[in-house]
Amino acid sequence: MARLPRLTVPGYPHHIIQRGNNRQPIFAADADYEAFLAMLDEHSRAQGVALHAYVLMTNHFHLLATPDSAEAIPQMMQAVGRRYVRYFNQRQARTGTLWEGRYKSTLIQAERYLLACMVYIDLNPVRAGMVAAPVDYPWSSHRHYAGLRTDKLVTPHPLFWELGNTPFARDAAYVELVNAGIDSGAQRALTDSALRGWALGEPGYVAALQKKTDRRVSPGAPGRPRAK
């Protein structure tokens, strides 16, 4: 079966996952995380991508972002990916690929899954047993949303602003969401949808999204009519 092209639609939030080749580390020191974030900041701005949330794990990373154009995310990921591989290979005196194939991504219904996806991203280091709480992990956007630092890389989605009328109220409401966690079903749906490339949302959302692209957005979406 032919590989489906990535689904990228302007104005919609996208959940993105990129893993290291053979699950190998892609960050070896604090300087590597800092360099990657600097590249991500530069190219997200250059390509017109609003980055809502992120986490950099030892051997993979997650992004939640909304592009201004259909080319914005692919161009950003290509630029960051190539530049970071050159940087990392030079520092580690290595050659060859660093990434496990293409990055994975899909669209998520903002009203249903955006805040859940942010919580899911923040809890990655906790699920991996790296820290006891998201606030203890320095390489994610959680501390920004918890009101503990200002992260210039982050552009809050409008749904975050609806959590409260003041910065303190929004931060407290978001921390409460993270503390409540995410159920296993939503967690699995967020992972599977990104890895498989199918849009994640209610039937009406998926149907409306299908009208915006010729690429199938779900396994059940109609394909090309069979010839008579």
TrEMBL record:
InterPro entries: Transposase_17, Transposase_17_sf. SMART domains: Y1_Tnp. GO terms for molecular function: DNA binding; transposase activity. GO terms for biological process: DNA transposition. It comes from the Bacteria. It holds the Pfam family Y1_Tnp. SUPFAM superfamilies: Transposase IS200-like. Residues 9-124 form the Transposase IS200-like domain. Gene3D superfamilies: Transposase IS200-like. Signal peptide: none annotated. This is Transposase.
